Amino acid sequence: MLRFQYPLRFAHCDSAGIAYYPRLFELTDAAIEDWTPAVLGFDRRTMHQSRGLGLPTVDLHADFTAPARLGELLSFDVALRRVGGSSIDLSVEVQCEGAPRFAVRLTQVLMDLAGAVPVAWPDDLRARLMNAKEPE
Amino acid sequence: MLRFQYPLRFAHCDSAGIAYYPRLFELTDAAIEDWTPAVLGFDRRTMHQSRGLGLPTVDLHADFTAPARLGELLSFDVALRRVGGSSIDLSVEVQCEGAPRFAVRLTQVLMDLAGAVPVAWPDDLRARLMNAKEPE
Amino acid sequence: MLRFQYPLRFAHCDSAGIAYYPRLFELTDAAIEDWTPAVLGFDRRTMHQSRGLGLPTVDLHADFTAPARLGELLSFDVALRRVGGSSIDLSVEVQCEGAPRFAVRLTQVLMDLAGAVPVAWPDDLRARLMNAKEPE
Amino acid sequence: MLRFQYPLRFAHCDSAGIAYYPRLFELTDAAIEDWTPAVLGFDRRTMHQSRGLGLPTVDLHADFTAPARLGELLSFDVALRRVGGSSIDLSVEVQCEGAPRFAVRLTQVLMDLAGAVPVAWPDDLRARLMNAKEPE
Protein backbone atom coordinates (compact mmCIF):
# COMPACT_ATOMS: atom_id res chain seq x y z
CA MET A 1 0.00 0.00 0.00
CA LEU A 2 1.28 3.46 -0.86
CA ARG A 3 0.01 6.69 0.68
CA PHE A 4 -0.32 10.02 -1.15
CA GLN A 5 -1.63 13.21 0.41
CA TYR A 6 -3.40 16.16 -1.20
CA PRO A 7 -5.26 19.10 0.30
CA LEU A 8 -8.96 19.50 -0.43
CA ARG A 9 -8.85 22.78 -2.29
CA PHE A 10 -11.35 25.50 -2.99
CA ALA A 11 -11.58 24.15 -6.55
CA HIS A 12 -12.85 20.82 -5.21
CA CYS A 13 -15.69 22.18 -3.05
CA ASP A 14 -19.31 22.79 -3.90
CA SER A 15 -21.62 25.50 -2.68
CA ALA A 16 -22.20 23.60 0.56
CA GLY A 17 -18.46 23.96 1.31
CA ILE A 18 -17.86 20.22 1.02
CA ALA A 19 -16.17 18.16 -1.67
CA TYR A 20 -18.01 17.86 -4.98
CA TYR A 21 -17.82 14.14 -5.67
CA PRO A 22 -16.64 14.24 -9.33
CA ARG A 23 -13.67 16.23 -8.02
CA LEU A 24 -12.93 13.47 -5.52
CA PHE A 25 -12.48 11.14 -8.48
CA GLU A 26 -9.93 13.57 -9.90
CA LEU A 27 -8.01 13.38 -6.63
CA THR A 28 -8.36 9.59 -6.63
CA ASP A 29 -6.96 9.58 -10.15
CA ALA A 30 -4.07 11.80 -9.02
CA ALA A 31 -3.22 9.20 -6.37
CA ILE A 32 -3.26 6.43 -8.98
CA GLU A 33 -1.17 8.65 -11.27
CA ASP A 34 1.41 8.95 -8.49
CA TRP A 35 1.18 5.25 -7.68
CA THR A 36 1.91 4.27 -11.31
CA PRO A 37 5.63 5.17 -11.55
CA ALA A 38 6.23 3.88 -8.01
CA VAL A 39 4.98 0.43 -9.03
CA LEU A 40 5.36 0.15 -12.82
CA GLY A 41 8.61 2.09 -13.08
CA PHE A 42 7.39 4.70 -15.57
CA ASP A 43 4.89 7.52 -15.50
CA ARG A 44 1.70 8.04 -17.48
CA ARG A 45 3.37 10.17 -20.08
CA THR A 46 5.84 7.40 -20.86
CA MET A 47 3.05 4.84 -20.72
CA HIS A 48 0.89 6.74 -23.22
CA GLN A 49 3.40 8.38 -25.49
CA SER A 50 6.40 6.02 -25.52
CA ARG A 51 4.87 2.62 -24.86
CA GLY A 52 1.48 3.26 -26.53
CA LEU A 53 -0.39 1.81 -23.56
CA GLY A 54 -3.36 3.07 -21.60
CA LEU A 55 -4.97 1.85 -18.40
CA PRO A 56 -8.60 2.97 -18.51
CA THR A 57 -11.07 2.30 -15.71
CA VAL A 58 -13.80 -0.14 -16.71
CA ASP A 59 -15.56 -0.60 -13.38
CA LEU A 60 -15.71 1.62 -10.31
CA HIS A 61 -17.48 1.44 -6.98
CA ALA A 62 -17.35 4.24 -4.46
CA ASP A 63 -18.88 4.72 -1.07
CA PHE A 64 -18.84 8.02 0.72
CA THR A 65 -18.71 7.80 4.49
CA ALA A 66 -18.41 11.45 5.48
CA PRO A 67 -18.06 14.71 3.58
CA ALA A 68 -14.54 16.05 3.03
CA ARG A 69 -14.24 19.73 3.88
CA LEU A 70 -12.29 22.66 2.47
CA GLY A 71 -8.71 22.69 3.72
CA GLU A 72 -8.56 19.10 4.94
CA LEU A 73 -5.38 17.22 4.13
CA LEU A 74 -6.63 13.93 2.71
CA SER A 75 -4.61 10.70 2.74
CA PHE A 76 -5.13 8.37 -0.22
CA ASP A 77 -4.04 4.78 0.48
CA VAL A 78 -3.68 2.98 -2.84
CA ALA A 79 -3.48 -0.82 -2.69
CA LEU A 80 -3.27 -3.38 -5.48
CA ARG A 81 -5.86 -6.06 -4.75
CA ARG A 82 -5.85 -8.32 -7.80
CA VAL A 83 -3.71 -8.86 -10.90
CA GLY A 84 -5.57 -10.37 -13.86
CA GLY A 85 -4.41 -11.31 -17.34
CA SER A 86 -4.73 -7.76 -18.64
CA SER A 87 -6.39 -6.05 -15.69
CA ILE A 88 -5.83 -4.91 -12.12
CA ASP A 89 -8.09 -4.15 -9.19
CA LEU A 90 -7.11 -1.20 -7.01
CA SER A 91 -8.57 0.06 -3.78
CA VAL A 92 -8.17 3.66 -2.70
CA GLU A 93 -9.15 4.41 0.89
CA VAL A 94 -9.30 8.04 1.86
CA GLN A 95 -9.22 9.53 5.31
CA CYS A 96 -8.37 12.71 7.16
CA GLU A 97 -6.36 12.23 10.34
CA GLY A 98 -7.73 8.72 10.73
CA ALA A 99 -11.38 9.59 10.08
CA PRO A 100 -12.70 7.88 6.92
CA ARG A 101 -14.02 10.04 4.09
CA PHE A 102 -14.61 7.73 1.14
CA ALA A 103 -13.32 4.57 -0.53
CA VAL A 104 -13.10 3.57 -4.17
CA ARG A 105 -12.51 0.19 -5.76
CA LEU A 106 -11.56 0.22 -9.44
CA THR A 107 -10.85 -2.28 -12.18
CA GLN A 108 -8.48 -1.05 -14.86
CA VAL A 109 -7.59 -2.81 -18.11
CA LEU A 110 -4.31 -2.50 -19.99
CA MET A 111 -5.04 -1.34 -23.53
CA ASP A 112 -3.00 -0.99 -26.66
CA LEU A 113 -3.90 2.58 -27.64
CA ALA A 114 -3.36 2.10 -31.37
CA GLY A 115 -5.52 -1.01 -31.68
CA ALA A 116 -7.90 -0.10 -28.82
CA VAL A 117 -7.76 -3.69 -27.60
CA PRO A 118 -6.82 -5.17 -24.21
CA VAL A 119 -3.34 -6.61 -24.01
CA ALA A 120 -1.81 -9.08 -21.55
CA TRP A 121 0.60 -7.65 -18.98
CA PRO A 122 4.17 -7.90 -20.33
CA ASP A 123 6.35 -10.10 -18.13
CA ASP A 124 8.34 -7.23 -16.64
CA LEU A 125 5.23 -5.34 -15.60
CA ARG A 126 3.52 -8.48 -14.28
CA ALA A 127 6.54 -9.18 -12.09
CA ARG A 128 6.40 -5.64 -10.69
CA LEU A 129 2.65 -5.91 -10.06
CA MET A 130 2.93 -9.29 -8.30
CA ASN A 131 5.58 -7.75 -6.09
CA ALA A 132 3.33 -4.79 -5.19
CA LYS A 133 0.17 -6.80 -4.66
CA GLU A 134 -1.29 -6.91 -1.16
CA PRO A 135 -1.33 -10.34 0.50
CA GLU A 136 -4.83 -11.87 0.48
CA MET B 1 -37.26 7.83 -17.31
CA LEU B 2 -36.11 11.24 -18.51
CA ARG B 3 -33.50 11.82 -21.18
CA PHE B 4 -31.00 14.69 -21.24
CA GLN B 5 -28.39 15.24 -23.93
CA TYR B 6 -25.01 16.93 -23.72
CA PRO B 7 -22.08 17.03 -26.12
CA LEU B 8 -18.78 15.52 -25.07
CA ARG B 9 -16.65 18.62 -25.14
CA PHE B 10 -12.95 19.30 -25.46
CA ALA B 11 -12.93 20.07 -21.72
CA HIS B 12 -14.06 16.51 -20.97
CA CYS B 13 -11.40 14.69 -23.00
CA ASP B 14 -8.01 13.41 -21.96
CA SER B 15 -4.82 13.23 -23.93
CA ALA B 16 -6.00 10.05 -25.65
CA GLY B 17 -8.92 12.07 -27.11
CA ILE B 18 -11.50 10.14 -25.11
CA ALA B 19 -13.57 11.11 -22.09
CA TYR B 20 -11.70 11.50 -18.80
CA TYR B 21 -13.87 9.55 -16.39
CA PRO B 22 -14.11 12.10 -13.55
CA ARG B 23 -15.58 14.46 -16.17
CA LEU B 24 -18.18 11.83 -17.05
CA PHE B 25 -19.37 12.06 -13.46
CA GLU B 26 -19.77 15.82 -13.90
CA LEU B 27 -21.97 15.18 -16.92
CA THR B 28 -23.87 12.51 -14.98
CA ASP B 29 -24.39 15.05 -12.23
CA ALA B 30 -25.61 17.60 -14.80
CA ALA B 31 -28.25 15.09 -15.89
CA ILE B 32 -29.38 14.56 -12.30
CA GLU B 33 -29.35 18.34 -11.80
CA ASP B 34 -31.73 18.66 -14.78
CA TRP B 35 -33.82 15.71 -13.58
CA THR B 36 -34.34 17.31 -10.14
CA PRO B 37 -36.74 20.16 -11.03
CA ALA B 38 -38.59 17.93 -13.50
CA VAL B 39 -39.39 15.48 -10.70
CA LEU B 40 -39.21 17.40 -7.41
CA GLY B 41 -40.66 20.66 -8.72
CA PHE B 42 -37.74 22.88 -7.69
CA ASP B 43 -34.12 23.23 -8.70
CA ARG B 44 -30.94 22.70 -6.71
CA ARG B 45 -30.60 26.34 -5.86
CA THR B 46 -34.03 26.36 -4.24
CA MET B 47 -33.31 23.03 -2.59
CA HIS B 48 -30.05 24.24 -1.05
CA GLN B 49 -30.71 27.88 -0.37
CA SER B 50 -34.45 28.11 0.31
CA ARG B 51 -35.30 24.68 1.71
CA GLY B 52 -31.93 23.98 3.39
CA LEU B 53 -31.80 20.48 1.92
CA GLY B 54 -29.03 18.60 0.13
CA LEU B 55 -29.01 15.29 -1.70
CA PRO B 56 -25.44 13.98 -1.54
CA THR B 57 -24.35 10.74 -3.16
CA VAL B 58 -23.41 8.07 -0.62
CA ASP B 59 -22.85 5.11 -2.93
CA LEU B 60 -21.98 4.93 -6.60
CA HIS B 61 -21.26 2.14 -9.03
CA ALA B 62 -20.18 2.78 -12.60
CA ASP B 63 -19.27 0.52 -15.46
CA PHE B 64 -17.70 1.79 -18.62
CA THR B 65 -18.60 -0.15 -21.75
CA ALA B 66 -16.91 1.90 -24.45
CA PRO B 67 -14.97 5.16 -24.52
CA ALA B 68 -16.90 8.35 -25.32
CA ARG B 69 -15.17 10.48 -27.93
CA LEU B 70 -14.79 14.20 -28.52
CA GLY B 71 -17.85 15.66 -30.23
CA GLU B 72 -20.26 12.82 -29.50
CA LEU B 73 -23.74 13.83 -28.43
CA LEU B 74 -24.38 11.70 -25.37
CA SER B 75 -27.86 10.74 -24.14
CA PHE B 76 -28.27 10.40 -20.39
CA ASP B 77 -31.33 8.36 -19.38
CA VAL B 78 -32.09 9.06 -15.72
CA ALA B 79 -34.46 6.64 -14.00
CA LEU B 80 -35.63 6.48 -10.38
CA ARG B 81 -35.24 2.88 -9.24
CA ARG B 82 -36.03 2.94 -5.51
CA VAL B 83 -37.48 5.36 -2.98
CA GLY B 84 -36.36 4.78 0.61
CA GLY B 85 -37.23 6.55 3.83
CA SER B 86 -34.70 9.33 3.23
CA SER B 87 -32.91 8.02 0.16
CA ILE B 88 -33.32 7.31 -3.54
CA ASP B 89 -31.58 5.04 -6.03
CA LEU B 90 -31.05 6.43 -9.50
CA SER B 91 -29.71 4.80 -12.63
CA VAL B 92 -28.14 6.82 -15.40
CA GLU B 93 -27.55 4.96 -18.65
CA VAL B 94 -25.51 6.75 -21.25
CA GLN B 95 -25.31 6.04 -24.96
CA CYS B 96 -24.47 7.68 -28.24
CA GLU B 97 -26.90 6.95 -31.07
CA GLY B 98 -27.91 3.69 -29.44
CA ALA B 99 -24.38 2.48 -28.66
CA PRO B 100 -23.77 2.18 -24.90
CA ARG B 101 -20.97 4.21 -23.33
CA PHE B 102 -21.33 3.83 -19.57
CA ALA B 103 -23.89 3.37 -16.81
CA VAL B 104 -24.01 4.66 -13.25
CA ARG B 105 -26.15 3.58 -10.32
CA LEU B 106 -26.24 5.99 -7.37
CA THR B 107 -27.79 6.14 -3.92
CA GLN B 108 -28.49 9.63 -2.67
CA VAL B 109 -29.65 10.63 0.82
CA LEU B 110 -31.77 13.63 1.71
CA MET B 111 -29.90 15.73 4.25
CA ASP B 112 -30.77 18.69 6.38
CA LEU B 113 -27.83 20.98 5.60
CA ALA B 114 -27.90 22.84 8.91
CA GLY B 115 -27.89 19.73 11.08
CA ALA B 116 -25.97 17.52 8.62
CA VAL B 117 -28.37 14.67 9.37
CA PRO B 118 -30.55 12.56 7.06
CA VAL B 119 -34.22 13.54 7.00
CA ALA B 120 -37.28 11.60 5.85
CA TRP B 121 -38.82 12.65 2.55
CA PRO B 122 -41.57 15.22 3.21
CA ASP B 123 -45.00 13.96 2.06
CA ASP B 124 -45.18 16.22 -1.00
CA LEU B 125 -41.77 15.14 -2.27
CA ARG B 126 -42.45 11.47 -1.54
CA ALA B 127 -45.65 11.67 -3.59
CA ARG B 128 -43.73 13.17 -6.50
CA LEU B 129 -41.02 10.54 -6.26
CA MET B 130 -43.50 7.64 -6.13
CA ASN B 131 -45.11 9.06 -9.23
CA ALA B 132 -41.77 9.24 -11.07
CA LYS B 133 -40.48 5.84 -9.98
CA GLU B 134 -39.99 3.19 -12.66
CA PRO B 135 -42.24 0.12 -12.36
CA GLU B 136 -40.32 -2.88 -10.98
CA MET C 1 -21.87 37.78 -33.35
CA LEU C 2 -23.23 34.40 -32.31
CA ARG C 3 -24.98 33.68 -29.03
CA PHE C 4 -24.74 30.44 -27.08
CA GLN C 5 -26.47 29.76 -23.77
CA TYR C 6 -25.50 27.46 -20.94
CA PRO C 7 -26.80 27.13 -17.40
CA LEU C 8 -24.46 27.85 -14.51
CA ARG C 9 -24.40 24.43 -12.92
CA PHE C 10 -23.64 23.15 -9.46
CA ALA C 11 -20.29 21.91 -10.85
CA HIS C 12 -19.31 25.49 -11.70
CA CYS C 13 -19.97 27.04 -8.28
CA ASP C 14 -17.69 27.52 -5.34
CA SER C 15 -18.45 27.36 -1.66
CA ALA C 16 -19.85 30.91 -1.76
CA GLY C 17 -22.51 29.65 -4.20
CA ILE C 18 -21.15 31.76 -7.05
CA ALA C 19 -19.20 30.82 -10.15
CA TYR C 20 -15.62 29.67 -9.62
CA TYR C 21 -13.72 31.66 -12.23
CA PRO C 22 -11.63 28.86 -13.78
CA ARG C 23 -14.96 27.18 -14.51
CA LEU C 24 -16.15 30.31 -16.30
CA PHE C 25 -13.25 29.85 -18.70
CA GLU C 26 -14.47 26.31 -19.39
CA LEU C 27 -17.87 27.74 -20.29
CA THR C 28 -16.21 30.44 -22.38
CA ASP C 29 -14.29 27.71 -24.16
CA ALA C 30 -17.53 25.77 -24.72
CA ALA C 31 -18.95 28.85 -26.46
CA ILE C 32 -15.88 29.10 -28.70
CA GLU C 33 -16.13 25.35 -29.33
CA ASP C 34 -19.71 25.86 -30.52
CA TRP C 35 -18.75 28.96 -32.51
CA THR C 36 -16.03 27.08 -34.41
CA PRO C 37 -18.15 24.85 -36.69
CA ALA C 38 -20.63 27.70 -37.24
CA VAL C 39 -17.85 29.87 -38.66
CA LEU C 40 -15.09 27.55 -39.89
CA GLY C 41 -17.37 24.80 -41.18
CA PHE C 42 -15.86 21.95 -39.14
CA ASP C 43 -15.71 21.07 -35.48
CA ARG C 44 -12.73 20.74 -33.14
CA ARG C 45 -12.50 17.00 -33.59
CA THR C 46 -12.11 17.43 -37.34
CA MET C 47 -9.74 20.34 -36.82
CA HIS C 48 -7.47 18.36 -34.51
CA GLN C 49 -7.72 14.84 -35.83
CA SER C 50 -8.36 15.24 -39.56
CA ARG C 51 -6.71 18.55 -40.41
CA GLY C 52 -3.92 18.40 -37.81
CA LEU C 53 -4.59 21.97 -36.69
CA GLY C 54 -4.98 23.52 -33.27
CA LEU C 55 -6.08 26.96 -32.17
CA PRO C 56 -4.52 27.57 -28.76
CA THR C 57 -5.07 30.73 -26.74
CA VAL C 58 -1.93 32.83 -26.40
CA ASP C 59 -3.35 35.92 -24.70
CA LEU C 60 -6.44 36.38 -22.58
CA HIS C 61 -7.94 39.28 -20.71
CA ALA C 62 -11.02 38.93 -18.53
CA ASP C 63 -12.95 41.32 -16.39
CA PHE C 64 -15.62 40.21 -14.00
CA THR C 65 -18.45 42.67 -13.47
CA ALA C 66 -20.79 40.71 -11.23
CA PRO C 67 -20.82 37.17 -9.83
CA ALA C 68 -22.77 34.54 -11.75
CA ARG C 69 -25.00 32.46 -9.51
CA LEU C 70 -26.12 28.84 -9.42
CA GLY C 71 -28.97 28.20 -11.85
CA GLU C 72 -28.55 31.32 -13.97
CA LEU C 73 -28.89 30.84 -17.71
CA LEU C 74 -25.86 32.65 -19.10
CA SER C 75 -25.70 34.07 -22.63
CA PHE C 76 -22.28 34.00 -24.29
CA ASP C 77 -21.97 36.42 -27.21
CA VAL C 78 -18.96 35.42 -29.31
CA ALA C 79 -17.67 38.00 -31.79
CA LEU C 80 -14.68 37.90 -34.11
CA ARG C 81 -12.82 41.19 -33.69
CA ARG C 82 -9.63 40.79 -35.72
CA VAL C 83 -8.21 38.39 -38.30
CA GLY C 84 -4.42 38.27 -38.45
CA GLY C 85 -2.04 36.28 -40.61
CA SER C 86 -2.26 33.21 -38.42
CA SER C 87 -4.29 34.54 -35.50
CA ILE C 88 -7.73 35.78 -34.48
CA ASP C 89 -9.04 37.99 -31.71
CA LEU C 90 -12.35 36.98 -30.17
CA SER C 91 -14.51 38.73 -27.62
CA VAL C 92 -16.95 36.82 -25.45
CA GLU C 93 -19.44 38.94 -23.51
CA VAL C 94 -21.51 37.15 -20.95
CA GLN C 95 -24.74 38.28 -19.38
CA CYS C 96 -27.84 36.95 -17.65
CA GLU C 97 -31.11 38.47 -18.83
CA GLY C 98 -29.31 41.61 -19.91
CA ALA C 99 -27.22 42.05 -16.75
CA PRO C 100 -23.47 41.74 -17.47
CA ARG C 101 -21.49 39.05 -15.68
CA PHE C 102 -18.05 39.00 -17.29
CA ALA C 103 -16.25 39.57 -20.58
CA VAL C 104 -13.21 37.90 -22.10
CA ARG C 105 -10.98 38.94 -24.97
CA LEU C 106 -8.73 36.23 -26.41
CA THR C 107 -6.07 35.94 -29.07
CA GLN C 108 -5.76 32.51 -30.61
CA VAL C 109 -3.11 31.30 -33.03
CA LEU C 110 -3.52 28.64 -35.70
CA MET C 111 -0.94 25.94 -35.15
CA ASP C 112 0.20 22.95 -37.11
CA LEU C 113 0.02 20.28 -34.39
CA ALA C 114 2.72 18.06 -35.86
CA GLY C 115 5.31 20.82 -36.23
CA ALA C 116 4.09 22.92 -33.28
CA VAL C 117 4.51 26.04 -35.40
CA PRO C 118 2.04 28.80 -36.34
CA VAL C 119 0.60 28.52 -39.83
CA ALA C 120 -1.11 31.13 -42.02
CA TRP C 121 -4.86 30.82 -42.41
CA PRO C 122 -5.62 28.76 -45.54
CA ASP C 123 -7.59 30.75 -48.12
CA ASP C 124 -10.91 28.96 -47.54
CA LEU C 125 -10.75 29.55 -43.79
CA ARG C 126 -9.62 33.16 -44.20
CA ALA C 127 -12.60 33.83 -46.46
CA ARG C 128 -14.98 32.39 -43.87
CA LEU C 129 -13.36 34.43 -41.08
CA MET C 130 -13.51 37.69 -43.05
CA ASN C 131 -17.18 36.99 -43.63
CA ALA C 132 -17.83 36.44 -39.91
CA LYS C 133 -15.78 39.38 -38.67
CA GLU C 134 -17.60 42.22 -36.92
CA PRO C 135 -17.51 45.56 -38.72
CA GLU C 136 -15.07 47.96 -37.05
CA MET D 1 7.74 36.30 -3.90
CA LEU D 2 6.72 32.81 -2.87
CA ARG D 3 7.13 29.69 -5.00
CA PHE D 4 4.75 26.74 -5.09
CA GLN D 5 5.17 23.67 -7.26
CA TYR D 6 2.56 21.33 -8.70
CA PRO D 7 2.82 18.61 -11.34
CA LEU D 8 0.87 18.99 -14.55
CA ARG D 9 -1.42 16.02 -14.21
CA PHE D 10 -3.37 13.91 -16.66
CA ALA D 11 -6.51 15.72 -15.44
CA HIS D 12 -5.09 19.03 -16.66
CA CYS D 13 -4.27 17.96 -20.22
CA ASP D 14 -6.33 18.13 -23.36
CA SER D 15 -6.45 15.75 -26.27
CA ALA D 16 -3.28 17.29 -27.70
CA GLY D 17 -1.44 16.17 -24.53
CA ILE D 18 -0.83 19.74 -23.40
CA ALA D 19 -2.39 21.79 -20.63
CA TYR D 20 -6.01 22.85 -21.14
CA TYR D 21 -5.92 26.52 -20.24
CA PRO D 22 -8.93 26.68 -17.88
CA ARG D 23 -7.11 24.03 -15.85
CA LEU D 24 -4.05 26.27 -15.69
CA PHE D 25 -6.21 28.83 -13.92
CA GLU D 26 -7.15 26.17 -11.38
CA LEU D 27 -3.46 25.58 -10.73
CA THR D 28 -2.88 29.34 -10.56
CA ASP D 29 -5.68 29.55 -8.03
CA ALA D 30 -4.10 26.70 -6.05
CA ALA D 31 -0.90 28.75 -5.84
CA ILE D 32 -2.83 31.79 -4.60
CA GLU D 33 -4.67 29.53 -2.16
CA ASP D 34 -1.32 28.39 -0.76
CA TRP D 35 0.04 31.95 -0.78
CA THR D 36 -2.91 33.22 1.28
CA PRO D 37 -2.09 31.69 4.70
CA ALA D 38 1.62 32.38 4.19
CA VAL D 39 0.88 36.10 3.84
CA LEU D 40 -2.44 36.79 5.54
CA GLY D 41 -1.98 34.34 8.41
CA PHE D 42 -5.17 32.33 7.83
CA ASP D 43 -6.44 30.03 5.12
CA ARG D 44 -9.39 30.37 2.79
CA ARG D 45 -11.66 28.29 4.98
CA THR D 46 -11.09 30.65 7.90
CA MET D 47 -11.39 33.66 5.59
CA HIS D 48 -14.74 32.53 4.23
CA GLN D 49 -16.34 30.75 7.13
CA SER D 50 -14.96 32.50 10.22
CA ARG D 51 -14.24 36.03 9.01
CA GLY D 52 -17.00 36.23 6.38
CA LEU D 53 -14.60 37.61 3.79
CA GLY D 54 -13.97 36.69 0.18
CA LEU D 55 -11.30 37.75 -2.28
CA PRO D 56 -12.78 37.37 -5.76
CA THR D 57 -10.86 38.10 -8.94
CA VAL D 58 -12.22 41.11 -10.81
CA ASP D 59 -9.61 41.44 -13.54
CA LEU D 60 -7.23 38.92 -15.04
CA HIS D 61 -4.68 39.02 -17.81
CA ALA D 62 -2.81 35.93 -18.97
CA ASP D 63 -0.26 35.30 -21.63
CA PHE D 64 0.82 31.86 -22.65
CA THR D 65 4.40 31.55 -23.83
CA ALA D 66 4.75 27.83 -24.36
CA PRO D 67 2.50 24.82 -23.79
CA ALA D 68 2.88 22.95 -20.52
CA ARG D 69 3.10 19.19 -21.00
CA LEU D 70 1.88 16.16 -19.08
CA GLY D 71 4.21 15.31 -16.22
CA GLU D 72 6.03 18.62 -16.02
CA LEU D 73 6.68 19.98 -12.55
CA LEU D 74 5.54 23.59 -12.78
CA SER D 75 6.83 26.36 -10.51
CA PHE D 76 4.34 29.11 -9.66
CA ASP D 77 6.00 32.31 -8.42
CA VAL D 78 3.37 34.43 -6.67
CA ALA D 79 4.25 38.08 -6.05
CA LEU D 80 2.21 40.90 -4.55
CA ARG D 81 2.54 43.89 -6.87
CA ARG D 82 0.11 46.47 -5.48
CA VAL D 83 -1.97 47.01 -2.36
CA GLY D 84 -5.04 49.18 -2.83
CA GLY D 85 -7.71 50.34 -0.43
CA SER D 86 -9.68 47.11 -0.73
CA SER D 87 -7.79 45.37 -3.52
CA ILE D 88 -4.51 43.70 -4.39
CA ASP D 89 -2.66 42.99 -7.63
CA LEU D 90 -0.86 39.67 -7.86
CA SER D 91 1.44 38.30 -10.52
CA VAL D 92 1.92 34.58 -11.00
CA GLU D 93 4.78 33.56 -13.26
CA VAL D 94 4.97 29.93 -14.20
CA GLN D 95 7.94 28.03 -15.54
CA CYS D 96 9.33 24.53 -15.80
CA GLU D 97 13.03 24.21 -14.99
CA GLY D 98 13.59 27.83 -15.95
CA ALA D 99 11.63 27.75 -19.21
CA PRO D 100 8.59 30.06 -19.10
CA ARG D 101 5.15 28.57 -19.62
CA PHE D 102 2.63 31.32 -18.83
CA ALA D 103 2.09 34.35 -16.64
CA VAL D 104 -1.04 35.77 -15.01
CA ARG D 105 -1.71 39.15 -13.49
CA LEU D 106 -4.83 39.40 -11.32
CA THR D 107 -6.67 42.06 -9.37
CA GLN D 108 -8.62 40.77 -6.41
CA VAL D 109 -11.02 42.73 -4.21
CA LEU D 110 -11.76 42.08 -0.55
CA MET D 111 -15.49 41.53 -0.13
CA ASP D 112 -17.79 41.21 2.79
CA LEU D 113 -19.64 38.02 1.87
CA ALA D 114 -22.83 38.86 3.73
CA GLY D 115 -23.25 42.33 2.24
CA ALA D 116 -21.58 41.53 -1.10
CA VAL D 117 -19.74 44.85 -0.92
CA PRO D 118 -16.02 45.68 -1.06
CA VAL D 119 -14.42 46.41 2.31
CA ALA D 120 -11.20 48.19 3.17
CA TRP D 121 -8.30 46.03 4.31
CA PRO D 122 -8.35 45.80 8.12
CA ASP D 123 -5.20 47.26 9.67
CA ASP D 124 -3.68 43.90 10.63
CA LEU D 125 -4.09 42.51 7.13
CA ARG D 126 -2.84 45.72 5.49
CA ALA D 127 0.32 45.55 7.61
CA ARG D 128 0.93 41.97 6.53
CA LEU D 129 0.34 42.84 2.88
CA MET D 130 2.67 45.85 2.96
CA ASN D 131 5.31 43.57 4.44
CA ALA D 132 4.88 41.00 1.64
CA LYS D 133 4.72 43.47 -1.22
CA GLU D 134 7.51 43.42 -3.79
CA PRO D 135 9.66 46.55 -3.94
CA GLU D 136 8.78 48.70 -6.96
TrEMBL record, chains A, B, C, D:
InterPro entries, per the entry: HotDog_dom_sf
**Name used for this protein in its record:** Acyl-CoA thioesterase
Q: Which organism is it from?
A: Sphingomonas baiyangensis
